[in-house]
Each structure stands twice: as C-alpha cells, then as structure tokens.
Amino acid sequence: IMLHSTLALSLLLIAVTSNLAMAIKKEKRAPQTLSRGWGDEITWVQTYEEGLYQAKKSNKPLMVIHHLEDCQYCQALKKAFAENEEIQEMAQNNFIMLNIMHETTDKNLSPDGQYVPRIMFVDPSLTVRADITGRYSNRLYTYEPQDMMFLIENMKKALRLIQTEL
C-alpha cells in the first residue's frame, strides 16, 4: 500500500509540474497579433516611439515596415518576408522590429512619400538611414517579393553601419 501511494503521489506531482511548465511556456508565447503575418517568431514593438526606445537601449537598429491590409503588394511582400528564414532569423535576433499600418508623425520616415509597402531602418543613435534604399528610384524604400536577397544585404548593411559609426 505504501508503495502504491508513493507511486500515485509521484505521478500526481509529475502531472502537476508538466502542466505548470506548459502553462508557463504558453504564457511566454502570447498570440502574436503584432506580427500581422510578418513573422510570428519575431518580437514586435507596438509603436514607433517604443521602437526608438528599444533601439537606443539595446543598440540594435530599428526596422520599420509600413504596409496596409488591403494592399496586394504588401501582402505579396509579407509572404516572401515571412517565408525567408534568413530574414526571419536576423529580424528576430539583430533588429528591433515594427510593422505599422498608419503613418508616423516622423517625416524622416517618408523622405520620398507615404507609399506602401516601404521598409526603412533607424539606427540606435535614432538616425533614419535614408541611405539604405531598395532597387527602385521612384520608390526608394519599396521591396518586391523577388528582392529578398537585396533586403538581406540591406539588413546586413544596417548592422554594419552601427559598428562602424557608433
């Protein structure tokens, strides 16, 4: 009888702790509403101001993605962005990430107009990197699904510029 109750008690303890562990794990990965489909493993900031604060604090560049829900170009870019493992990993580990569907009051984030999609970088010194542009001269900060390698290069450039300038 003693053995039986010890066994029952240990099984109960195992059940409770594994449930607790699962609850803790669930708590940590809250549903990613802020990702809006751009990457659920990435930690996204909610506002531009929060992004600037985190960039300065962590000494990581801020990547700002302007997009709209009903824009087909944004949807196509989002899909390519979310499916690219290298981009997802860099975004997750080396950048403060923000995707927004409204314009910010910072005019530096729309140097050549308020079009979507556009991706801009802000370094930890809170300087908008107007020198990190995409491939199109009419919309300097736009990227298309086939431009993911180009975006990766620009992400690396944003990281390099921090090390060399700050």
TrEMBL record:
Q: Which SUPFAM superfamilies match?
A: Thioredoxin-like
Has the keyword Glycosyltransferase been applied to this entry?
A: no
- Superkingdom classification of source: Eukaryota
Q: Which residues form the signal peptide?
A: 1-23
In this record, what's one Pfam family?
Answer: Thioredoxin_7
Question: Which keywords, in A-to-Z order, does the entry hold?
Answer: Signal
Where is it found, in Gene Ontology cellular component terms? endoplasmic reticulum
* UniProt keyword Signal, yes or no: yes
Q: In Gene Ontology terms, what is one molecular function of this protein?
A: dystroglycan binding
PANTHER family recorded: ANTERIOR GRADIENT PROTEIN 3 (PTHR15337:SF5), ANTERIOR GRADIENT PROTEIN-RELATED (PTHR15337)
Q: What family name appears in the similarity comment?
A: Belongs to the AGR family.
Name by which UniProt lists this protein:
AGR3 protein
Query: What organism is the protein native to?
Result: Hippolais icterina
